[in-house]
Each structure stands twice: as structure tokens, then as C-alpha cells.
């Protein structure tokens, strides 16, 4: 079978997109995110055989926000293994990413590790397991991605602290239920730092390619995590990676992925590629409007998805 010309497919997708009006709004509830140019559009696809295809603002660094929660889950699984699932579930939430309601009636056990409550519990696990949580998590992110220059962004983290009232509420409620073991400020410091990381589409496609390659990062040849846990992370991305729109993403795109309110989406085609798309205008669920359209067009035009 001949190799797919993803570059030609990107060009076709862009031509089709030009006909679509600019819709959606950039996230403003984190003040620093409101400063982003809403019309940016970048995409980068890296295959497991190290071929690269890019378009537009693929080398523009942006706030990856919740996409980083894939790393915290990966590291928690390495440390706590299956016991992680005593503290957080593996079911889609069907509620907004920062919702408090479900958490109250489910006794402080978040539905999954990607909604804010679940990611905060995962950060609590890391605070318990790691000697120097912020440094050790960053170290893991750098080595697993093969990108030693990755840093937390203090300006974005500070911006989140100032307006993170719902996250404080979630953490305190879970502490009340006994599902946060450490000091809330310390756990949220790790959580906000994690969410503050800025990367380009090109870097993101490299960083999460291990999920398309059985847990091995092809760029470094490092086994980041076992194939069995790679399967688990991909399935959680498939079911829970898009807030209360995970069904919509599975229906339209058919790949495991994770979005962030900075306008980025990472999607993985196991055995084939990892792609990152960045476009800051979000729909009401907090997912990038154009990034979803690009990925839907990609799997439709190639006629290849996991289904
Ligand atoms: N740091 C953001 C928050 O806590 C993450 C939101 C997201 O990307 O889902 O609200």
C-alpha cells in the first residue's frame, strides 16, 4: 500500500475550511488565555516512522491546558498502578469539565482523570508519590517527550490561581470526602503548573506519539509506559478526552484524543500517527471548533480511523 500524502490532505482540508465562517470564542475565564489571537491555525502530524506534515502556525507555542493531564495520568499509573482506579473512575462524565454537581452525589470520586476534579485527584496522588512533585513531574514530561526545554509557564499558572475558584471548590469538596490526602494549595499548585505548559503542535505530536506506538516514543526509543497501560490511556482519551462532547468526537473523528481550553487537540491513530491541531476559538463545551473540523475531515478523507 502506498504511503498516505497527508500534506495533500491538509491542503484539501484548508481549502474546505476557508468556506466556513469563524465561529466560537477564545477562553476568557483564565485571563492570560484571552490574549491569544483567535485566528491562529496550526497542525502537525508525525507518523510512527518519523515522517512530518505541517500547516500554518504549527511552530507557534500555545497553552496546552488539559492536554497535559495525559502526562499526569501516565505518571500516576507508573507509580500507583491499578490502585489509581480506587480514587478516580474511568467513565465519561457527561457534565462540564469543571462541574461540581456530579462530584457531590458521587461522594467525591470523580468520573475520570481528565475532568478537572479527576485531574486534581491525580495531582494529589503525584504529591503523595513524588519526592519533589513539580520538579519530578516536569522531569518525566521532558524525558518521556524527548523535549528537554519544556517548562511550566508561571504567568499562566498565576492567572489560573487568581480565577480558579471552581477548582478550589472541587478540591475542598473532595478533601471533605477524604479523596484529597495532601494540602489543597500544594495539590492545586501542581495542577495549575501542569496546565500552564506551552508547546507547539510539532512538539505535541512528538510528545504523545508514544500513545500511537505501544508506549514507546519513536523519537527517543524510550518505553514511556507498558503496552497494556497505553491501551488504557487511549481508551480513557477516547471516552473522556473531550469534556461532555466525547461522544461527538468519537462519532465524527473516531480517534482517541485530548483537548484543552487553550484551543489545542491531540489525537492518536495507534500504529500510524499522532496529530496536534491548534485553533483558539472554542465551542460551548470548551473544544476547539476548527480543530474538531480538521480532524473530522482528516479521518473522513483518509477513510481511516480506529473504527
Ligand atoms: N486549567 C484549566 C482549568 O482548570 C484546564 C481546563 C481545560 O483545558 O480543560 O479550568
From TrEMBL:
Top-rank taxon, per record: Bacteria
User: Per UniProt, which keywords does this protein have?
Assistant: Acetylation, Hydrolase
The UniProt entry, under InterPro entries, shows: Beta-lactam/transpept-like, Glutaminase
Recorded catalytic activity of this chain's protein: L-glutamine + H2O = L-glutamate + NH4(+)
Q: Name one GO biological process term.
A: glutamate biosynthetic process
What general EC class does the enzyme of this chain belong to? hydrolase
Instruction: Cite the binding residues for substrate.
Output: 66, 116, 160, 167, 191, 243, 261
Enzyme Commission number(s): 3.5.1.2
Q: Which SUPFAM superfamilies match?
A: beta-lactamase/transpeptidase-like
Subunit info here reads: Homotetramer.
The protein depicted here goes by the name Glutaminase
Q: Which organism is this protein's natural source?
A: Saccharophagus degradans
Query: What gene name does this entry carry?
Result: glsA
